[in-house]
Design a protein that fits this description.
InterPro entries: Znf_ZPR1, ZPR1, ZPR1-like_arc, ZPR1_A/B_dom, ZPR1_jr_dom. This protein is α+β, with helices and mostly antiparallel strands. It folds into two domains: 52 residues, N-terminal domain of TfIIb; 102 residues, Jelly Rolls (Sandwich), CATH 2.60.120. It is built from three helices and twelve strands. It has a five-stranded antiparallel β-sheet with strand order 8-7-10-5-12. The protein binds zinc ion. Zinc ion binds next to loops.
């Protein structure tokens, strides 16, 4: 018996291009006879028309750690989706952002993520730390971006990104 595609994820996000909250993110699960289960992402901005499409093999949405080394301007333009459940760490810049602070996920480039962080750093970042983030945005500092996502929804669209299972540590 064949089944049609099933919607497995649906959220309205802020568009990475026009910044309006009209970016409809929808993921479909396809069960194909030859390629197995695939996830098709069709994300589209109703305001400016920006589109993000992607096809990838279906993996269980389990806790995972995604890591990528950012070494040049090309890496900075990599598309990244940070779900609302992901923690961001950039050890070289002393950045650690817990998921609880964000009510919603966002899609952006790595450079855009640094910009978002720079907007919100106020409390934990002094002038020197701000300068380092700016240098990183210009590709003058190499750094590692780590996403720890308990729901496994986040992704970094690059072959350089590595994905490992996240071992959840429980304090009790
Ligand atoms: Zn847009």
């Amino acid at each position: 018996m064949s089944e049609g595609p099933k919607v497995i994820f649906e959220e309205t996000l802020v568009c990475p291009v026009c910044k309006s909250k009209t970016f409809k993110a929808i993921d479909y699960l396809y069960d194909t006879p030859h390629a197995g289960k695939l996830i098709l992402s069709n994300w589209y901005c109703e305001n400016c028309g920006y589109r993000f499409r992607d096809v990838k093999p279906y993996e269980a949405r389990e806790p995972k750690v995604i890591e990528m080394r950012i070494e040049n301007e090309n890496d900075l333009r990599t598309i990244i989706y940070r779900s609302a459940f992901a923690k961001i760490t950039i050890p070289e810049l002393g950045i650690e952002i817990e998921p609880a602070g964000m009510s919603q996920g966002y899609i952006s480039t790595i450079e855009g993520v640094l910009e978002i962080i720079l907007d919100k750093v106020g409390d934990f970042c002094d002038k020197e730390c701000e300068n380092r983030i700016r240098l990183a945005m210009e590709g003058k500092i190499k750094f590692t971006l780590v996403l720890e996502d308990e729901l496994g929804l986040s992704f970094i669209k690059s072959e350089k990104a590595t994905v490992k299972p996240l071992i959840l540590t429980n304090s009790d």
